[in-house]
Amino acid sequence: MVRVAVVGAGVSGLAATKCCLDEGLEPTCFEQSQDIGGLWRYTEHIEAGRPSLYPSVISNTSKEMSAFSDFPFPEHFPVFLPNALLLDYLRRYAEHFSLREHIRFGTTVVSIRKHPDFATTGRWSVVTEAGGKQTSEVFDAVMVCSGNFSEPSLPLQCFPGIERFQGQYFHSRQYKHPDVFQGRHVLVVGMGNSGVDIAVEASRVAAKVTISTTRGAWLLSRVFEHGYPWDMILNTRLMSLIKTNLPGPLSWWLINYKVNKWFNHENYGLQPEKRYFLPVLNDDLPSYILTGRITIKPGVKEFKDNSVLFHNCPEEEPIDIVVFCTGYNVSFPFLEESVVRVENKHASLYKYVFPTHLQKPTLAVLGLIKPLGAIMPVAEMQARWVSRVFKGRGANVSPPVPQNAAQTHFILPAREIPELRILKTEWLVYLDTLASFIGAKPSVLGLLCTDPWLALTIFFGPCSPYQYRLGGPGHWEGARQAILTQWDRVLKPTRTRVPAGSSSSFPSFLIVVGFLLLLAAVIFGF
């Protein structure tokens, strides 16, 4: 029996444990706290080494696109989930697949080192601590699922004058409730998802709120075209085909057009300076800018005793409190630096998972990626691939070390990683790549001959995770039905005043233009 150590019982750790069981491996999941959930388990106090959540956090991806591929969310759950309901889903998942019996709670991983016979066996010595007592065990493989939201990045050296600022400042990890901003002048530095959320909450009680952003950002609303969830409209195989095949300038124009349909970003001071597309999700910011609750400013030039100067702005802005939303460092304190190697300010991971230089592919890092889409299906797909590699079933990692740089994906070292630069990739393309490694990628053309309605739904509809359970290892009998009823589960919690009818107008669209567009897709080489 292959013994696998899983570090962390959050989203990635639960998926890793379940996938190991599916492959007949023997997982032991180490969780330093007393419960599962990782990032999604809210606590009022901040725990060292754990992510810290504020109580108002809601998922940025819809339930149908965020589900594990063989475990849909309950139909009565809202489309976007408050953190408490997402935690409830994770608990249901753990119970359904009997995962808790494989988790050691209150156990901290102290160190993971190569076993003396690593060169021949690939085994690891894992030292853990529980109740003040350390234990050493040997495992055949390791899955690192500790996440990247525990060590805040607070580069104060980048903000001249901060040492003489007489107001209060803190990192967004310390934020819990907006009461601290009551009647005060607030500056939020950075406009990732947390920065915008905190600014919006602060503006309801503060005297004034200012967001400082150097590069701007695209802003998406959870409510997208025709009121449907944004990711169920944007993350389709058709859209992915268009985005990946258009010339760069045309693709940039399409992105501009899509995101500016809601509002003109340039008019609101938000137009990004560079051509990257990892947007911020928030439903309120534009209206709060219009009503004067929030002001957008460029990057901070210098802090004064009770004010701040911005670049290209001659006037000082009075400030009482500063929230630094400057992201998190990626660190693995239990690993030697040589395991996830940092060279020339880069650490290399094959397909964002396997350290490229290890002699044996027996250690994997899961969830260290920020796609334009839900992280849960990505972490699960990584776990499905990795567990099959650990099982010795091929899965396109023989050897895992790429022979040319084009196959290697790089990240900056911990001290230099801002939140938006952690391993960005095209969500659907990445999922398809890993799915093809294990033989779970759906064949649209093959289905067109055997199940045309399903083929059209898969190609034109949202790429929900259930697609990756239609065939191959881990095949789930309920996958087809889950795909065809996904819009029913979206509308169930919203159509509460009138009887539920047809799932959406989307199938009508498929009937009218489906075959024609699919033919065009075939011509373009899909």
From TrEMBL:
Name of the protein this chain belongs to: Flavin-containing monooxygenase 1
Keyword RNA-binding belongs to the record: no
Cofactors that this protein relies on: FAD
UniProt-listed SUPFAM superfamilies: FAD/NAD(P)-binding domain
Family in the record: Belongs to the FMO family.
InterPro entries: FAD/NAD-bd_sf, Flavin_mOase, Flavin_mOase-like, Flavin_mOase_1, FMO-like
Enzyme category, top tier: oxidoreductase
Origin superkingdom: Eukaryota
Keywords in alphabetical order: Endoplasmic reticulum, FAD, Flavoprotein, Membrane, Monooxygenase, NADP, Oxidoreductase, Transmembrane, Transmembrane helix
Membrane topology (UniProt): Single-pass membrane protein
PANTHER family in the cross-refs: DIMETHYLANILINE MONOOXYGENASE
Record gene name: Fmo1
Transmembrane segments: 506-525
UniProt keyword Flavoprotein present: yes
EC number assigned by the record: 1.14.13.148, 1.14.13.8
Location relative to the cell: Endoplasmic reticulum membrane
Any coiled-coil regions, as ranges: none
Chief place where the protein resides: endoplasmic reticulum
Purpose: Broad spectrum monooxygenase that catalyzes the oxygenation of a wide variety of nitrogen- and sulfur-containing compounds including xenobiotics. Catalyzes the S-oxygenation of hypotaurine to produce taurine, an organic osmolyte involved in cell volume regulation as well as a variety of cytoprotective and developmental processes.
Annotated GO CC locations: endoplasmic reticulum membrane
One annotated GO molecular function: trimethylamine monooxygenase activity
Catalytic reactions on record: hypotaurine + NADH + O2 + H(+) = taurine + NAD(+) + H2O; N,N-dimethylaniline + NADPH + O2 + H(+) = N,N-dimethylaniline N-oxide + NADP(+) + H2O; trimethylamine + NADPH + O2 = trimethylamine N-oxide + NADP(+) + H2O; hypotaurine + NADPH + O2 + H(+) = taurine + NADP(+) + H2O
Organism: Cettia cetti
